[in-house]
Specification:
2 domains; seven-stranded mixed β-sheet; about 35% helix; TIM Barrel; alpha/beta; eight-stranded parallel beta barrel
């Protein structure tokens, strides 16, 4: 058995442990104002660091996690020992992302941590049709040059928007996503993009909140789950087909685990870590309550044979796939999160585009995205007349008039469809109200990447669609898309 998780080196040189210690459960431990002894938590976390579990993952909303991690960092530095590697997340509400606002988010984390530099700052973004995430990432690049952060990562980004960010020149080294035997979304398009651009995936939820462990083998379905992590992943179990097929999976994993004299958790963790696009798995810690550090080391020594892999593949084939791409559970139905339906939360986010009445037809509403084309040519990005919304031909034009992803039709299609969805939202509709799209391309020999993007957005909506080749579009654009929505 190894004495500590191995270190893996990301592009640009940042080294992290292959088993990352996740601190999200601190938020649950402090839920509803529960008292929490920070000194005891720091002492428990110091034990993790001294045994080689010294890459800590946290976020701005994980309770006191940043404070406790900073206490451990300081204590180990002052003792002349190797301090932990700090990974944290910034999860701002969408809106203007000036350098000052982004700096403020980073400086808040630095203050809570008591540090002058964060090893890896990871951005989570709530809604892609708010395009300011590109501004946030560009400004994180500036703060990296200033030395406030070491590297830039993402969290819960899907394949299309990871690729778009990379095409826009953002130097991303990692993307943290849900990945398990129950949730294999990350093994598809996201892994392909990650491999292509040398971005490592960090898999969380590998044990599904503790459901993929020996504890639940042969057990009846729980009537109540008390902790947030368990609430979330019980929804995954239900979506995947329910308790019976899940128990079949656990039975298979239990048999494989017994063969190798390890735990079910070891098999589940090894499955994710063994995937070629994954750099590390994140295993949560409930500080002061329980720890499984030595058992977790077993997953590094495992080697599954063809019989093991075949048995696991057959068991997972009986499960219903988790829908969509990585992170969709936070952004659109079905909302597979601890709190369930996030519609109310997302509905409180401000509209991306300005809406006002049409001057000569006040019974109609118009939406303006701020594109210079709208002012120059005197048109609306979208119009709502009664229960109908029509969206003008839209190009991948950023807020200051720049072309997003020049010469890349796939990236442009992502940005365009986000802008179209922002228009539909602003005028009171939703993506599922879209009934028609028309795509105009300068070179239809490049249609496949665009078609794949269209499918990702509309694979459960199925609008009517037309693809048309045209001779040219003004500016460095590869395509233009228009849409129509019908509200019910």
């Amino acid at each position: 058995m190894p004495n500590a998780p191995e270190k893996i080196t990301l592009k640009n040189g940042l080294a992290v442990r292959s088993i990352i210690t996740g601190l999200w459960q601190m938020a649950d431990q402090e839920r509803d104002g529960k008292p929490f002894d920070l000194d005891s938590a720091a002492e428990a976390l110091t034990a993790y660091a001294r045994e080689g579990f010294d890459t800590f993952d946290m976020a701005d909303h994980y309770g006191s996690a940043e404070i406790v991690a900073g206490m451990v960092h300081k204590a180990l530095r002052e003792a002349g020992e190797q301090p932990p590697t700090i990974l944290t997340k910034w999860c701002p509400p969408p809106g203007e992302m000036s350098l000052g606002r982004v700096r403020g988010g980073v400086e808040t984390a630095l203050e809570r941590l008591g540090l002058d530099r964060i090893d890896l700052m990871q951005l989570h973004w709530w809604q892609y049709h708010s395009p300011e995430y590109l501004d946030a990432l560009a400004n994180l690049m500036i703060l990296r040059q200033e030395g406030l952060i070491g590297e830039i990562g993402l969290t819960n980004f899907d394949a299309a928007h990871l690729r778009l960010a990379l095409k826009e020149g953002i130097d991303v080294v990692s993307n943290q996503v849900c990945f398990s035997l129950l949730d294999r979304r990350a093994a598809g398009a996201l892994s392909k993009t990650a491999r292509e651009y040398d971005v490592k995936l960090f898999g969380f939820g590998t044990l599904c909140g503790g459901f993929l462990t020996d504890k639940w083998v042969g057990k009846p379905e729980p009537s109540e789950v008390p902790d947030w992590s368990g609430m979330k992943y019980k929804r995954f179990v239900d979506w995947a087909g329910g308790w019976e097929p899940f128990q079949n999976l656990l039975d298979t994993l239990s048999g494989v685990a017994a063969k190798h004299n390890v735990s079910v958790a070891n098999i589940a963790g090894h499955y994710v870590l063994d995937h070629d696009a994954v750099g590390a798995v994140i295993v949560g810690a409930r500080l002061g309550e329980r720890e499984h550090r030595q058992d977790n080391l077993n997953l590094l020594e495992l080697s599954l044979d063809i019989d093991d892999r075949t048995a696991i593949a057959e068991a997972t084939a009986n499960l219903k796939p988790i829908p969509g791409d990585c992170g969709d559970e936070y952004r659109k139905p079905p909302f597979l999160t601890a709190s369930g339906d996030l519609s109310d939360h997302l509905d409180t986010l401000p509209a991306v585009h300005k809406v006002e009445p049409v001057p000569l037809r006040p019974d109609r509403q118009r939406s303006d995205s701020g594109s210079p084309w709208e002012t120059a040519a005197g048109f609306s990005r979208g119009i709502r007349a009664g229960d109908t919304i029509v969206v003008s031909g839209t190009t991948a034009t950023g807020p200051t008039g720049e072309c997003v992803c020049p010469n890349d039709p796939e990236g442009q299609a992502v940005y365009i469809l986000d802008k179209i969805i922002a228009t539909v939202f602003a005028l009171g509709g939703r993506p599922e109200d879209i009934i028609r799209t028309r795509i105009y391309m300068c070179d239809t020999s490049k249609w496949e990447g665009v078609a794949e993007v269209h499918k990702r957005y509309f694979d459960r909506i199925f609008p009517a669609n037309t693809l048309i080749e045209i001779s040219d579009i003004v500016g460095p654009y590869e395509l233009e898309i228009e849409a129509e929505a019908k509200l019910s």
